[in-house]
Amino acid sequence: MELKGKVINFLGDSVTGGCKVKDPAMVYHQIIARKMECTANVYGEGGSCFARETTEEEAKNWPPCFCDRVEDMDPNADINVVFGCQNDYSHCTAPIGTPDDRTPDTFYGACHYLIKAILEKYPCKPLIFMTPVHYQAEMLENEHGRVFKDYIDIVREVCEMYAIPVCDLFANSGIVPMLESQRPLLIPDGDHPNDLGHEIIASRFIGFVSTL
Known about the structure:
Radius of gyration: 16 Å
Strand order of the largest sheet: 2-1-3-4-5
Number of strands: 5
CATH superfamily: SGNH hydrolase
Distance between the termini: 5 Å
Largest sheet: 5 strands, parallel
CATH class: Alpha Beta
Strand content: 5-15%
CATH architecture: 3-Layer(aba) Sandwich
Helix content: 25-40%
Number of domains: 1
């Protein structure tokens, strides 16, 4: 896939927002924009989930979910990239749901809703999902009795149903905060990649897109 001259919407959470990156020019989408000579529209909201919070109190504490932010994205973009789901695991009150769900009130439903909303707004334009990198606390069960990989697997599953390509950073980034030798170099807080971590993410994305 050719990126030069293209306008790309990056829809994400705090990683897309550049949390823990010292130099804003080193956030992954800015590296991609420089290297590939494209334009990056950034829609990164820290704490944002795919699914909607189920309580009014939690909805006030966090930004609107990915599903509700699609309408704010540049309608003239050539490519859309969705990068997230970690917050759905870490704090979202919405349950996992079932594969038959189609509303943003569960994680399964939000995945379906999000994909369909983007494909309908941008017919025949490329859509790419990126899974998050590993998370230091990923094996702890959340309030729904799930671990992080359960959410990653659902993203992969639903994207496959719509033939959406997935840049699988969880499987292929090489960023593993559980390793003491890696964490201080790439993802010091065990959650948000640093400048070097973002360089790796950008490199993986560029390599992945070149295969499409």
